[in-house]
């Protein structure tokens, strides 16, 4: 079967869609130059979708999920954690309840700050420094995205640099074509904890004779809340005192398109720029288990000054050209700058860690520290002074990437070839300072003694390329590809007193990552798939020579079913790590060797992913969509070792990995009408280990089981007005979702939100 060139060029077909999305056909002739074809090409190239789509049984090689605009609008989630809870094979460690600093893992890849997966917006890496410092302290507002794509399997080699787990691509709003006409919308919402959302966009295109098609989009969004935590006042949790525990996050996006007329080859240009900012009064400080049991939303007064403040700029130029009826070239140049100040309580002026104090709060001197922490007693000694870190970091990420696509016939098969080349550079500059505070009269008082504790700069430059071939024989679909990366790293440490250069280390590496997959169409409804690829996560600059990169061989095999109303998938996966890495960060509770990476050696991660999306007809006007996702996972260290990494400790062969639940289940049931829809979404996540092995502070601790229900609904008043309402965490489930960075933490409690959308 011949698939449109654009669908092939945009990588792979989606293997599953959510119940709110019907698959659309993109089988336009490859060389058609009608206005309709141009509009379709325009839109598809603009969104930089990883996946094309087909009407019949999808033949994607690899497990893929597409969350459509309809599904995103149904639940109106602002939290990427909640958006992804319906996708099998995705692992989440909650932290702040809002998803401000996401922790996402795929197929067992460590979820810590989403640092081991390829995160993208419109096909461009969005981690502040994907090679030098990939931790996702920046994350865009998911509310402005129109599609979220999750891919696990062999095609991960196309994106990189991290190919162990997979890729997540978020698609921003497209510019309206001339045929679409003007598009504009205003979305306003209000809810508990003084939640406020204001979101609007305006888009229009013009066809100018002898010049071409010009279009633009202007979009802005702001979301804020007072927060759900209650800050202590003079040693006791006070009702309504949570005005300093919320956040305010905003983004503005501008896009401009140009499709020139009267050119020999069809071309498309796009310029995109954006600005984002966030101020959030979040903290790394949690609670003791006893205090959590009494008041899970309490927050100790020692964290009253904690605040994250960041700004983000992005610039992107894209160009697409059809060189002939079979060949096209797509190029993107990009630059992102991210500047963040993360000021927060870190520890007492002692070598006793906060994890030790919070897990044994009534033991000896720990009880005295707890009294200071909660404001019940003033600071009396040097050791009882509270140390605050002012973590100032500046990032940039820039590069240029070109992808060449060709499709035609070979050996009685449809052959699609694509090649990619990317030159990328990113950098993080750290300037961490420390202040001392004393607890006085139930509040913090600055003592002074500011000093620099970390001053360094890490830079990574990478030349990455890939080649991939897809052969479609109709009943059999084969794909084979390889990714090659050459990475240079540079780490500079500065003297803390003078700021002059103290040391410089450089390193370089070359890695080859092959992948292969196959899909066999058994019947019109049933198909089988198999895939294998090499997983890789590079070292950060400045690591010791004895630190190995993370490497694995990843296997998947499964069955897929598809008909007009039902899509189902059952996939087994096995990740065979020759070396698993850990990374010392503040967010995982590590303090002494910040940025240091650790070897864990051989690890096995294996499991099953299952999904079912179906629709039942209730009546002529009512349908019952059902979406089920289940993940079973097992993990085992294959060797025994001792580690100073806070999540491992003394590990014995056979121990499980932390933050990897054995069972996860998501069930979504809706009642859908042409003019309204209601939905219930149930999520279950089994308890997770906080640390592997023994002789580490959280050894033997588990998070709680999570059983959460979300309700959402909308009603279309007329062609222009839609009202909606939702209740996140309908049962007000307040459980311990994590004890990292330090202390027991709760997810977001029940929150009721109502909103209205006006389209014109």
3D structure, described in words:
With 760 residues, the protein is mainly β. The chain has one domain (5-759): Beta Barrel (Maltoporin, Chain A), CATH 2.40.170. It contains 7 helices and 39 strands. The strands form 7 sheets. It has a 22-stranded antiparallel β-barrel. The chain has a 6-stranded mixed sheet with strand order 2-4-9-10-7-8. The protein is globular. The two termini are 40 Å apart.
Task: Provide the fold topology.
Layout: H1 5-9, E1 12-13, E2 16-17, H2 35-47, E3 51-52, E4 63-67, H3 69-75, H4 80-83, E5 90-92, E6 104-106, E7 118-121, E8 124-125, E9 145-152, E10 167-172, E11 183-191, E12 195-208, E13 212-225, E14 230-233, E15 236-237, E16 247-260, E17 267-280, H5 289-294, E18 298-299, E19 307-322, E20 327-348, H6 354-359, H7 366-373, E21 386-410, E22 413-440, E23 443-472, E24 476-494, E25 501-521, E26 526-537, E27 550-562, E28 566-583, E29 597-617, E30 622-637, E31 641-642, E32 650-651, E33 663-673, E34 676-685, E35 706-716, E36 721-728, E37 736-738, E38 745-746, E39 751-759
Parallel strand pairs: 1-3, 2-4, 7-10, 14-18
Antiparallel strand pairs: 4-9, 5-6, 7-8, 9-10, 11-12, 11-39, 12-13, 13-16, 14-15, 16-17, 17-19, 19-20, 20-21, 21-22, 22-23, 23-24, 24-25, 25-26, 26-27, 27-28, 28-29, 29-30, 30-33, 31-32, 33-34, 34-35, 35-36, 36-39, 37-38
């Amino acid at each position: 079967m011949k698939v449109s060139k654009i669908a092939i060029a945009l990588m792979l077909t989606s293997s599953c869609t959510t119940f709110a999305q019907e698959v659309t056909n993109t089988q336009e002739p490859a060389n058609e130059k009608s206005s309709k074809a141009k509009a379709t090409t325009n839109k598809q190239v603009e969104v930089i979708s990883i996946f094309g789509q087909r009407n019949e049984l999808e033949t994607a090689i690899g497990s893929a999920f597409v969350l459509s605009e309809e599904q995103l609008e149904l639940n109106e989630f602002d939290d990427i954690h909640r958006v992804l809870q319906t996708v099998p094979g995705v692992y989440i460690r909650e932290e702040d309840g809002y998803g401000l600093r996401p922790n996402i893992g795929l197929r067992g890849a460590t979820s810590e700050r989403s640092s081991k997966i390829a995160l993208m917006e419109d096909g461009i890496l969005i981690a502040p420094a994907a090679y030098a410092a990939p931790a996702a302290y920046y994350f865009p507002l998911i509310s402005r995205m129109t599609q979220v794509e999750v891919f696990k399997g062999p095609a991960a080699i196309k994106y990189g640099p991290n190919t162990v787990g997979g890729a997540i691509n978020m698609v921003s709003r497209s510019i309206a074509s001339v045929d679409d006409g003007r598009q504009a919308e205003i979305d306003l919402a209000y809810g508990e904890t003084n939640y406020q959302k204001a979101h609007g966009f305006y888009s229009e295109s013009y066809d100018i004779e002898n010049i071409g098609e010009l279009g633009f989009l202007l979009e802005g969004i702001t979301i804020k809340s007072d927060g759900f935590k209650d800050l202590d006042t003079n040693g006791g949790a006070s009702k309504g005192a949570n005005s300093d525990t919320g956040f305010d996050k905003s983004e503005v996006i501008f896009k401009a398109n140009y499709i020139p007329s009267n050119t020999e080859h069809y071309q498309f240009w796009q310029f995109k720029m954006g600005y984002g900012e966030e101020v959030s009064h979040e903290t790394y400080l949690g609670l003791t288990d006893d205090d959590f049991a009494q008041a899970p939303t309490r927050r100790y007064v020692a964290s009253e000054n904690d605040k994250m403040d960041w700004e983000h700029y992005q610039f992107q130029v894209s160009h697409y050209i059809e060189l002939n009826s079979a060949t096209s070239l797509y190029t993107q140049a990009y630059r992102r700058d991210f500047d963040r100040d993360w000021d927060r309580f870190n520890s007492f002026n002692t070598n006793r860690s906060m994890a030790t104090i919070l897990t044994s709060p009534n033991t000896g001197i720990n009880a005295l520290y707890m009294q200071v922490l909660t404001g019940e007693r003033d600071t009396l000694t040097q050791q009882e002074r509270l140390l605050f870190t002012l973590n100032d970091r500046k990032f940039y990420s820039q590069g240029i990437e070109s992808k060449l696509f060709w499709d035609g016939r070979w050996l009685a098969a449809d052959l699609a070839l694509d090649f990619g080349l990317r030159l990328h550079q990113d950098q993080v500059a750290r300037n961490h300072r420390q202040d001392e505070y004393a607890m006085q009269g139930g509040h913090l008082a600055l003592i002074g003694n500011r000093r620099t504790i970390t001053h360094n700069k890490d830079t990574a430059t990478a030349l990455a390329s890939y080649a991939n071939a897809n052969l479609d024989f109709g009943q059999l679909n084969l794909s084979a590809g390889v990714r090659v990366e050459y990475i240079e790293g540079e780490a500079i440490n500065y003297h803390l007193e003078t700021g002059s250069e103290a040391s410089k280390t450089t390193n370089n590496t070359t890695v080859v990552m092959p992948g292969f997959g196959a899909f066999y169409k058994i019947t019109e409804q049933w198909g089988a798939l198999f895939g294998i690829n090499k997983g890789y996560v590079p070292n950060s600059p400045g690591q010791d020579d004895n630190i190995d990169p993370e490497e694995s061989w990843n296997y998947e095999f499964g069955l897929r079913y598809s008909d007009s109303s039902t899509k189902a998938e059952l996939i087994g996966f096995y990740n065979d790590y020759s070396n698993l890495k850990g990374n010392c960060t503040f967010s995982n509770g590590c303090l002494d060797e910040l940025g240091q990476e650790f070897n864990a050696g051989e690890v096995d991660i294996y499991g099953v992913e299952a999904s079912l999306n179906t629709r039942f007809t209730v009546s002529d006007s009512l349908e019952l969509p059902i979406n089920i996702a289940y993940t079973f996972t097992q993990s085992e260290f294959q060797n025994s070792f001792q580690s100073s990494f806070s999540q491992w400790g003394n590990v014995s062969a056979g121990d499980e990995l932390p933050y990897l639940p054995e069972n996860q289940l998501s069930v979504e049931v809706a009642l859908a009408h042409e003019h309204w829809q209601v939905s219930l979404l149930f999520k279950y996540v089994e308890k997770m280990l906080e640390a592997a092995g023994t002789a580490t502070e959280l050894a033997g601790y588990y998070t709680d089981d999570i059983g959460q229900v979300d309700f959402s609904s909308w009603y279309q008043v007329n062609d222009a007005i839609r009202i909606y309402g939702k209740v996140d965490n309908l049962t007000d489930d307040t459980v311990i979702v994590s004890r990292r960075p330090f202390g027991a933490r709760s997810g977001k409690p029940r929150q009721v939100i109502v909103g209205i959308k006006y389209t014109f």
